[in-house]
């Protein structure tokens, strides 16, 4: 049965019978006339639909929250309840849009400009969010684990490619807006413009986003942050050179190292791991060493100029002698000869040793002590001469356990004799067994949770406490895994604030496992390393691409700073805001909408 719409009724009212129609034919004539009018109506509706489709935009732009992971299969983009981006001066505002193609789109690029109307002017940087296959999911999984129908997750932000979209296809667009600390408070309108080709003709699509800058300034960040880089391994740098070899300490090596330093500095990294032992040129004659620290100095100065070196993280001096719980041995450079080739080689054979061979020996070996007795005083004198001694910290070895803790403490004690005042730092998987060996304690997050009272006592006694995440913890703990909600990567630094950890360490800035990290399975070693654990940036030609996780991490570091600022003004309010979102070490309020409300209250409290 056809229900008469307003339009159909109008057409039926206009249908009049011919004057000579006989009464017996009236019913049939009315029926025929109605059917004719119905056909006319649906024909006009079809024409109207065609005209409307012809006038439809070639693409639509939607604003979504920058903490949303937008999967390729997503189709619905409701308006945000609050689409204003809120930030302090000194932060970087993150904007995420999604473009949906209604026709075939090619050659898509994007720009972001600040529209007139403010005394200050902001500039935006744009990049397309691309997708990587996660591969094997990690276990035990989080209750908040995200699922993708395709198995592909958004992560890299690629800023130098043109995008092609088929009709109905979507893709996120990321816009970063650095806000100089001198920026005046006010609402800034950022217009994002997407240019592309439709049937060979140029078209532009745009959307304007409001960025509200509060009368709050963050001149610098105080949370100690280190993400370890694999740049000392030339194979890692080859991926920034189209697969071609990069000679250690060549001009290209230093050029690519600067790329790393700039990326780290722009994401609030202020601690950098430099291997003094690996970057030193040695000679050994009749038991006497000489040391050339030129390459160590170049790396330190490069990161210092970039703004990523408030503290120097001296690379590890010792390594496991065998299995995971086996004792630690010191890395010792000796003459490369038949005798030393029988000794266990140190784990980085790519370094330049100029006729030397790096081997592993116990700390009580006379060759070890001969080296340390000369190297450590020479390093200390050099750091003093460069004015870096107060910034320098020293690793012994990574992740000591209860079983190999005695060998760790023995090496630490030996080093402290020759580097008095230099803090010993390390990521740890145990606690009490190392009590006298470490000054900057960095427990993995679940160990920090389990032994929280122990670490609080250490802080009372003047020790620093950070925490780290890596391949673990898993389950419901926050981490940087690609399969986790993006808000949990940001929450890492709310955990820093709530539980009083003044630093964060992660091993995987750029430990790419394959030859094409933008397309390779993101999990490594058959799932032993969850997707996203080994890297948080991606390689381009002579550049690094950031990721949505690295952006979230940077924004979380700003959150930490704002909370510390509010603590100076109203400690109870700062702690209350953190408690609303971080319920426990492994329990969080993951509502993005509620997070935005809490952060708005944080900025308002600071701006009053």
Automatic annotation (TrEMBL):
Residue ranges of every copy of the Glycoside hydrolase 123 catalytic domain listed in the record: 240-566
Pfam families assigned to the protein according to its UniProt record, in alphabetical order: GH123_cat
Record's protein name: Glycoside hydrolase 123 catalytic domain-containing protein
């Amino acid at each position: 049965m056809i229900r008469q719409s307003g339009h159909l009724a109008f057409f039926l009212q206009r249908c009049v019978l011919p004057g000579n129609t006989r009464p017996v034919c009236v019913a049939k004539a009315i029926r025929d006339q109605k059917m004719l009018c119905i056909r006319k109506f649906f024909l006009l509706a079809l024409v109207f639909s065609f005209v409307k489709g012809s006038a439809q935009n070639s693409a639509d732009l939607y604003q979504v929250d920058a903490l949303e992971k937008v999967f390729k299969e997503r189709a619905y983009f409701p308006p945000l309840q609050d689409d204003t981006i809120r930030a302090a001066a000194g932060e970087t505002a993150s904007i995420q849009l999604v473009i949906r193609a209604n026709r075939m789109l090619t050659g898509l690029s994007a720009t972001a400009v600040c529209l007139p109307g403010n005394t200050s002017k902001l500039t935006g940087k744009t990049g397309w969010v691309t997708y990587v296959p996660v591969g094997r999911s990690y276990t035990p999984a989080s209750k908040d684990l995200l699922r993708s129908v395709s198995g592909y997750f958004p992560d890299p932000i690629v800023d130098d490619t043109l995008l092609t979209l088929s009709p109905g296809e979507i893709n996120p667009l990321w816009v970063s807006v650095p806000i100089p600390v001198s920026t005046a408070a006010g609402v800034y309108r950022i217009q994002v413009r997407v240019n592309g080709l439709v049937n060979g003709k140029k078209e532009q699509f745009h959307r304007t986003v409001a960025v509200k800058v509060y009368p709050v300034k963050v001149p610098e960040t105080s949370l100690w942050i280190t993400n370890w880089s694999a740049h000392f391994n030339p194979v890692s740098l080859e991926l920034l050179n189209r697969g071609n070899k990069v000679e250690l300490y060549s001009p290209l090596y230093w050029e690519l190292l600067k790329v790393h330093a700039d990326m780290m500095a722009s994401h609030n990294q202020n601690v950098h791991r430099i291997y003094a032992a690996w970057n030193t040129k040695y000679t050994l004659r009749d038991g006497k060493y000489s040391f050339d620290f030129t390459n160590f100095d170049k790396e330190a100065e490069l990161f210092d100029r970039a703004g990523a070196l408030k503290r120097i993280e001296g690379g590890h001096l010792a390594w496991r002698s065998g299995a995971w719980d086996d004792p630690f041995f010191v890395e010792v450079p000796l003459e490369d000869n038949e005798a030393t080739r029988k000794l266990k080689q140190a784990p980085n054979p790519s370094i330049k040793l100029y006729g030397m061979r790096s081997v592993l020996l116990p700390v009580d070996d006379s060759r070890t002590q001969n080296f340390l007795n000369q190297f450590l005083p020479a390093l200390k004198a050099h750091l003093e001469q460069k004015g870096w001694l107060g910034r320098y910290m020293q690793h012994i070895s990574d992740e000591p356990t209860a079983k190999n803790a005695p060998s760790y403490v023995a090496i630490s004690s030996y080093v402290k004799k020759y580097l008095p005042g230099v803090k010993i730092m390390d990521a740890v998987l145990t606690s009490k067994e190392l009590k006298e060996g470490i000054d900057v304690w960095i427990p993995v997050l679940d160990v920090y949770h389990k032994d929280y009272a122990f670490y609080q006592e250490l802080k009372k006694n003047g020790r620093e406490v950070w925490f780290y995440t890596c391949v673990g913890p898993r389950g419901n703990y926050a981490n940087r895994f690609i399969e986790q909600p993006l808000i949990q990567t940001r929450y890492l630094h709310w955990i820093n604030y709530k539980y009083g950890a003044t630093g964060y360490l992660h091993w995987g800035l750029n430990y790419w496992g394959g030859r094409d990290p933008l397309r390779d399975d993101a999990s490594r070693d058959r799932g032993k390393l969850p997707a996203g654990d080994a890297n948080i940036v991606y390689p381009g030609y002579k550049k690094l691409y950031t990721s949505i996780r690295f952006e979230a991490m940077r924004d979380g570091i700003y959150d930490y700073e704002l909370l510390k600022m509010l603590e100076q003004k109203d400690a109870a309010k700062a702690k209350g805001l953190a408690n609303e979102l971080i319920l426990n070490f492994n329990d969080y309020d993951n509502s993005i909408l509620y997070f935005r409300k809490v952060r708005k209250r944080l900025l308002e409290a600071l701006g009053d």
